[in-house]
Each structure stands twice: as C-alpha cells, then as structure tokens.
Amino acid sequence: MPKPESFPIEKIFVPTKQKKAIKPETVAEIAESILDIGQQAPISVRLDGDRLVLVEGLHRLEACKALGETTILGILVTAELAQHKPQLAERPEVEAERIKMARLKQLRLEKEAADASAAALKGVRQSEAPRTRPAKGVRDNPKASPGRIVKSKPKSLSDWITQQKGSGGRY
Q: Cα 18–20–21 angle (5° rounding)?
C-alpha cells in the first residue's frame, strides 16, 4: 500500500458529481475531530495530467479547507485503482441496504405464508360438516312449552282450525 504524503489542497480538483454530495454537518464533525486528534485517514487522489483529482475523502478535504489548512494527507492511486475505489467505499452501505431488503423480503414471505396457512385452515373448517343450528323458535328442550314450538303450516283450513284449537288460540 502506498505511503500517505502531503498534497496542496488548491491543486486537488473535486468532480462536480462529488461536490453535490457534501453534507455540512459531516464536514463540521470531521473538522472538530481534526482539531482534536488530527487527520487520521488520508484521502485518495489520482493524477490527471498536471492536476490531482479527488477519488475519496471529500468531507475530509472540505474540513481541512474550512480549518484553513494548505495541505492534506493523501495517497496517490492509479487510475485503475481509482475506478474501483469508490465501489469499495460504497460497499458497506450497499451491503447494508441489500441485507435490509433481503430481511424485508423474508418478513413479507413469512407473512404471506402465514396468511395462506390461515386461509387454508379456514377453508378446511368450512369444508368440514357444517354445524347446523336449529330453526328459529325450535328448541332442543323437550320440556319447552308447546306454544313456543314452531309448527308446520297447515295444508287446509280444517287443519288450521285444529291447530288453533290445540294451541289454545282463537279462530
């Protein structure tokens, strides 16, 4: 691994795409840390003609600028390594997002399986012999008063009169 060296800050070019990613609160935190303990992690730069192009360490660079530093610790990397370096820097975040999405997918599949199982169980219960309830007014109690038991409809007028007489009704 190359040894960190000191680079002049004004010679480091920051691509426009990276400038959009600056978070002022992160720059402030890093600046405080640099004041307390110094710069611990070097930035990565690559040569592009006669200028240096920032590969990694935007917030550290901005923190040093904010502190009024003229130089910054950095590592000079090759163009091939510079192409792969941002992917390695993003990898933990990408990996964390991938793990999170996989967990959400697993939870969704478990919920769908539980719902399907509950629906299947409900379907089995419905396909079993349904429990029949007695018709309204009909009781299982043999001691029930005869007036409360629903009787079948009479087929003729004489059957109706007989039924009314038997139940004590008026006709």
A: 70
